Amino acid sequence: MDFDCLLIADDGPVRTITVNRPDKLNALNQATIAELDAAFAAAGADPAVRVVILTGAGSKAFVAGADISELATTPAADLLAFARAGQAMMSRVERLGKPVIAMIPGFALGGGLELAMCCHLRIAADTAKLGLPEINLGLLPGFGGTQRLLRLAGRAATLELTLTGKPIDAARAHALGIVNRVVPATELEATTRALAGELAAKAPHAVRGILSAVLLGGEAAIDTGLDYEAQAFGVCAATEDMREGTRAFLEKRPANFTGR
Ligand code: COA
């Protein structure tokens, strides 16, 4: 698959998807959103891909938001469709059934923070800046930012970031629970790849079950969430990987999970 705005690279079971518009700080125009949707559909459908790393080209930005020049010139009715397309793409990422790690070297603003928040884990360089500055454009986040930040960091932090529009540094984002880890910029890639490699070696059915129980179950009443969890547990119990995992423990050796 050929993309104009993305780079795709595979390293064994880990696929890296890079938004590649560094001269625009990787801003999300409509074409990039459509390409991300297609790239994640392909990653979800490919059994050889166990983990995805999502990042932005260059050291300055993950993604600096929706493309403001496109926003400024697109008719209002089309911008509603744009918000819906961005939301649908980000929901696809969130529901991929495989871990997606956002590797954040620099600015993650507006649609960029929204994109990072639909990933399952976020690792930021200590130089990163995160925020939802849409208010300064007379807008609000339209790709799920009000909802995902609320769930990640609570109402006070969400209202502060959305109403002031002021970016926060990586350390504060970590303190608020928005990013999982903050590392020196020079260690960002190695740390992210080590985590991706670790997750790629886990049993895929168990990974899928955890993602589904946490993401879908977490949005439901607790009895429904507990039911998701029990159902996913039951599915895993019937896999060869579960037999392999328990046998490996008893034989005091590392497990070799095959996804069956
Ligand atoms: N959409 C379109 N273009 C963008 C962009 C965006 N969201 N963010 C940055 N760019 C472009 C700039 O226009 C500039 O292009 P140019 O060289 O053709 O003029 C280029 O990327 C570099 O950005 P620049 O502003 O010169 O870098 P900076 O270091 O001075 O500032 C930011 C960096 C991130 C603080 C600043 O670019 C910014 O505020 N961007 C917008 C963030 C935003 O509001 N995002 C939410 C959008 S909904």
Distance between the termini: 27 Å
String of helices and strands:
EEHEEHHEEHEEHEHEHHHH
Largest sheet: 6 strands, mixed
Q: How much is the average pLDDT?
A: 97
Integer-rounded radius of gyration: 19 Å
Record field, number of beta strands: 10
The CATH C-level name of the largest domain is Alpha Beta
Query: What percentage of residues falls in helices of 4 or more residues?
Result: 40-55%
Structure characterization notes:
This protein is of the alpha/beta class. It folds into two domains: 6-200, 2-enoyl-CoA Hydratase, Chain A, domain 1 (Alpha-Beta Complex), CATH 3.90.226.10; 204-250, Lyase 2-enoyl-coa Hydratase, Chain  A, domain 2, CATH 1.10.12. It is built from ten helices and ten strands. The protein has a six-stranded mixed sheet with strand order 1-2-3-5-7-10, sandwiched between helices. A four-stranded mixed sheet has the order 4-6-8-9. The two termini are 27 Å apart. Residues 24-25, 27, 64-69, 107, 109-111, 133-134, 137 line the site of coenzyme A (COA). The site of coenzyme A has 16 residues, from helix 2 and strand 6.
